[in-house]
Amino acid sequence: MLATLICFLAMPTAGETTLEPTDDVWVYQFAEDQTTDEYLRVWSGDGQAVGEIGDGHMSFSYSCLKFDTSKVDAKTVTKAKLVLTCAGSASFTLEDSKKNPLEARSLTTDWNEASWAYEKSKTVHPMKDPATIFGGGFGATTNDSDFKIEIDLMKGPADFKKQLAGAQGQIAIALTSTLCPEGQGEGFVYKLYSKSNDQAKRPKLVLSTD
Questions:
Q1: Residue 190: pLDDT above 90?
Q2: Of residues 32, 53, 83, the one with CA closest to residue 193
Q3: What is the pTM of this model?
Q4: 87 vs 187: CA distance, rounded Å
Q5: Which H, E and C letters describe 24-64, residue by residue?
Q6: N or C: at which end does the chain have fewer Cβ atoms within 10 angstroms?
Q7: Beta bridge partner(s), residue 86
Q8: Cβ distance 86 to 141 under 8 Å?
Q9: What are phi and psi of 83, to 5 degrees?
């Protein structure tokens, strides 16, 4: 009986770890100060989630998130989701969002918010390959209220758990979408609260473990 009790107590228990970004930036030539901007923004300029980059030309807008995962044991992670809060000023419908979901893609960790400059986008940007997508999510406002978008990072095709295991204490995610505001107005973009906001509105990486 005692041996059984000791064995039971030694068994790991399932849990949940919630991480907030150490860094986040909205990548756009005319973006405001990244250390104080309250929003991240995502849209497409030509119907492609990842457009052309370089020489001052960017046919889309994306955002970057980075998390400290140094205390996470990737082997025990069974579920992973990215939770984002979208401002209620959005003018797209739920159907628009389903057709043009918010995508989470793999990204280099070779950047930080404090020293960010637009020039960095030449090397810090998402890849066009759909195989770099961890997952996608959608949502829309009701009565102009803020709303949540949850992205299942284990959905793939990119292997989030494998990247987490080799992350060396940090993991970064790029947010992209085919949602295009051309002819639709400025509300036809994903306008997401950044880590500069109240705790309840900040981006969250939620990891469930065995």
A1: yes
A2: 83
A3: 0.91
A4: 10
A5: EEEECCCCCCCCCCCEEEEEECCCCCCCCEECCEECEEEEE
A6: N
A7: 147, 192
A8: yes
A9: -110, 125
- Could you tell me the pLDDT band of residue 34, with boundaries at 50, 70 and 90? confident
Please state, in angstroms and rounded to a whole number, the distance separating the CA atoms of residues 69 and 80.
12
Token pair listed for 51: 């457009």
| Residue 130 preceded by cis peptide, ω within 30 | no
Residue 25: predicted pLDDT: 96
**pLDDT of 1 over the 50 cut:** no
Quote the longest CA-to-CA distance of the chain: 72
- 10 Å CB burial of residue 26 (0-12, 13-18, 19+) is buried
Distances (CA, A) of 208 to 16, 51, 75, 105, 110: 4, 33, 11, 20, 26
Rounded Cα gap, residues 131 and 174, in angstroms: 13
Q: Which one, of 59, 63, 14, 75, lies nearest residue 37 by Cα? A: 63
pLDDT in tens, 145-179: 999 999 999 999 999 999 999 988 999 999 999 99
Distance between start and end Cα atoms, the chain: 25
From 209, 210, 208, 203, select the one nearest 67 (Cα to Cα).
203
SS3 9: helix
What band does 57 get if pLDDT is binned at 50, 70 and 90? low
3-state DSSP assignment of residue 143: coil
Q: If we measure between CA atoms, which residue out of 187, 37, 49 comes closest to residue 128?
A: 49
